[in-house]
User: What shape does this take?
Amino acid sequence: GTLIGASSGSSPYTVTWSVQPADGSYDVVAVAIDNVTNTSVASASTPVTIDNSGPSNSITAPVALTIYDGPSDTWATTWSGTISGTASPSGSVPLQFVKYAVENNGNNEYWNGSSFSSASQFLLTATGTSSWSASFPVANFAATGGGAGSYTLTAIVTDTSGSQST
Assistant: This one.
């Protein structure tokens, strides 16, 4: 094993890791050494997962900075009605969930599941993790008075250790 630190003081003993290890799974054990260097048997191991960085995340639909408009209802033929993206874990830490928010840039209101009327970011849960999606029909944009305008989509991926990527 590798010594990660030594405790000081009295029971209950705590140890601060002297160097943050690389991402991965580790088994931590404790060994006691008394004042005359008698060494105890190692404790039972405790599994620990280290996650120094968050997952990666990208939105694949809608396409960034793409204009969907026109008198011939380009939304209906171009817009699939699905928000989607991909995410990858950092190291061995699995992805937990993906949440997303859609903001109407015209009035700075967020989609709350039924209308653009939330003043603060309202997060909805997407389906899937490494390949995720959410239904967002063109009719949702009509809730803004015809749908014209610009919108900002934010996706937040969270892994099982709580690390996030926006």
The longest strand covers residues 95-104. The mean pLDDT is 85.
